[in-house]
């Protein structure tokens, strides 16, 4: 044990909370005053893009790479969009329709390849990247792995059906990730389409559209007749402008794995989304606990290219193993370095599995609260009737104001059994799940066990409130 978390943060000129977060992603739970070993420190340092040298058995030196991109190196990049919404509201149809608005592939007459994401180039010159797997499950799983790739969520709501349970889930998942939402009111070609009703219903979920004096962009579209496709694209670009999305293309590439598989004749293939820098054929890279040398880059039109820049989804060939969706991807200088990092990560991964992770428990919550990293207690509430759920949420939110330090945040609440979607959401946001007169389904129970998410069951409202109050003061007794 060579250095405290605080000291390491100081030497890197990073915030302590960010260092703790980075440690947590590696499965290491540490407080700001705890010491960590040189191996762990080195990995943290690398994650921040700095370099470390072991000056003695008991000390390390951090060399700043000086690679926080400076303002003038940053140029505008395409927004990355995920489409969400209730089943059958037209997510897939809309993704297909939007894909065919790409002018570049029309010129090239290219064959579309489904690689997990695609980019469209608009007639206006703008570009938008779409994640090809619709729905909030993929979105939130990626987030649970520490990858925030989505800049904008397009929420698809069928105009003949209105807001449905999965629409509400999607809203909560997007809000928990603090990603802005644009609403696509789809199927406006149908005779019983009622876009006004959709706008009205959105109000109940705190999405106030522009027509009603709010700031949420909502566009009437039809994936079938292609009405409004240009409008939705304009809305996305407008939102992107507000977000000022920029990246430095002139540096070693970093990004996230969107999809990865083993293919006959091609070996391990990963689709990555470059987030900054430019990826080149021949680059040595690390992806999660795997590494490789870029043998070929194939874009979403099936064409081989030599480079891929920010917000460009690209298939990478040349991996030595198959990483996981959501894994971080980064180019490194040497093969030796790549081996070192992946060996370390594989060891950490085994250790983390052995330690049977525990992310969303109250104890972990308190470690983070003490470290100043968590200012809120995020929870997911499921119950048997709407009335009791509302009573619980209301009471918990009142606890919030009584305690100015730590707040309760209800990420999602709805009627029904605790399902997989609840667990992924809790995992991504390090939240706990409360079941009021409902249980978890077997799949959700299994997932929660695997991910170390705490599920608490209650049948008396006062018990919930008492436990949370106790939790806020750090005095909760463990579950029996
Ligand atoms: P997903 O489950 O959200 O991905 O929905 P799909 O894209 O599979 O669409 C569900 C059904 O709605 C399919 O039968 C589509 O053909 C139909 N659909 C999708 N968009 C539209 C639309 O704009 N208008 C009409 N009339 N039908 C649509």
How does this model look, in words?
The protein is of the alpha/beta class and 480 residues long. It has helices at 5-12, 16-25, 38-47, 91-99, 103-108, 136-144, 165-176, 195-203, 229-243, 335-354, 362-370, 386-402, 420-429, 442-451, 461-472; strands spanning 3-4, 35-36, 51-56, 59-63, 75-76, 80-85, 117-121, 127-131, 152-158, 181-186, 218-220, 246-247, 254-263, 267-276, 279-280, 284-287, 290-298, 304-305, 307-308, 313-319, 328-332, 376-383, 407-415, 432-436, 455-458. The strands form seven sheets. The protein has a six-stranded mixed sheet, with helices on both faces. A six-stranded antiparallel barrel has the order 13-14-20-17-16-21. A four-stranded parallel sheet has the order 23-22-24-25, sandwiched between helices. It starts with a strand and ends in an 8-residue tail after the last helix. It binds guanosine-5'-diphosphate. Guanosine-5'-diphosphate (GDP) binds next to helix 4.
Count of separate DSSP helical elements? 15
The gyration radius over C-alpha positions equals: 23 Å
**What is the rounded distance between the termini?**
34 Å
Low-confidence stretches: 353-360, 475-480
Q: Per DSSP, what share of the residues sits in E-state strands of 2 or more residues?
A: 25-35%
Based on helices, strands and strand pairing, what is the structural class?
alpha/beta
């Amino acid at each position: 044990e060579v250095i405290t978390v605080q000291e390491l943060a100081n030497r890197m000129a990073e915030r302590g909370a960010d260092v703790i977060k980075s440690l947590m992603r590696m499965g290491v739970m540490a407080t700001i005053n705890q010491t960590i070993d040189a191996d762990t420190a080195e990995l943290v340092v690398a994650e921040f893009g700095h370099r470390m040298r072991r000056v003695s058995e008991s000390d390390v030196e951090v060399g700043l790479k000086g690679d926080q991109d400076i303002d003038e190196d940053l140029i505008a990049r395409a927004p990355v969009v995920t489409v969400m919404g209730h089943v059958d509201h037209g997510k897939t149809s809309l993704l297909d329709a939007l894909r065919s608005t790409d002018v570049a592939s029309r010129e090239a007459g290219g064959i579309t390849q489904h690689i997990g994401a695609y980019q469209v180039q608009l007639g206006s010159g703008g570009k938008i990247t779409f994640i090809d797997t619709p729905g909030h499950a993929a979105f939130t799983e990626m987030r649970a792995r520490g990858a925030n790739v989505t800049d904008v969520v397009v929420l698809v709501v069928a105009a003949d059906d209105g807001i449905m349970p999965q629409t509400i889930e999607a809203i909560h998942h997007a809000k928990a990730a603090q990603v802005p939402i644009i609403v696509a009111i789809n199927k406006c070609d149908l005779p019983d389409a009622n876009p006004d009703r959709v706008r009205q219903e959105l109000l109940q979920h705190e999405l106030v559209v522009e027509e009603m004096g709010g700031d949420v962009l909502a566009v009437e579209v039809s994936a079938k007749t292609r009405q409004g496709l240009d409008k939705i694209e304009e809305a996305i670009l407008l939102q992107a402008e507000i977000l000022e999305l920029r990246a430095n293309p002139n540096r070693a590439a970093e990004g996230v794995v969107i999809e990865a598989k083993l293919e006959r004749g091609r070996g391990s293939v990963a689709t990555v989304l470059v987030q900054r820098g430019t990826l080149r054929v021949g680059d040595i890279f690390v992806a999660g606990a795997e590494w490789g040398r870029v043998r070929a880059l194939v874009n979403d039109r099936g064409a081989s290219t030599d480079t891929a820049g920010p917000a460009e989804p690209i298939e990478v060939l040349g991996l030595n193993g198959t990483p996981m969706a959501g894994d971080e991807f980064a180019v490194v200088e040497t093969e030796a370095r790549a081996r070192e990092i992946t060996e370390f990560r594989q060891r950490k991964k085994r250790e983390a599995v052995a330690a049977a992770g525990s992310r969303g428990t109250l104890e972990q919550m308190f470690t983070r609260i003490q470290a100043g990293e968590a200012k809120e207690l995020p929870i997911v509430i499921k119950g048997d009737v709407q009335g009791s759920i509302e009573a619980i949420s209301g009471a918990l939110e009142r606890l919030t104001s009584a305690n100015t330090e730590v707040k309760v945040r209800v990420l999602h609440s709805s009627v029904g059994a605790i399902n997989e979607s609840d667990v992924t959401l809790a995992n991504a946001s390090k939240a706990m799940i409360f079941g009021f007169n409902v249980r978890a389904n077997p799949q959700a129970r299994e997932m929660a066990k695997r991910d170390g998410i705490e599920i608490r069951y209650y049948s008396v409202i006062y018990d919930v409130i008492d436990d949370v109050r106790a939790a806020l003061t750090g005095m909760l007794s463990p579950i029996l």
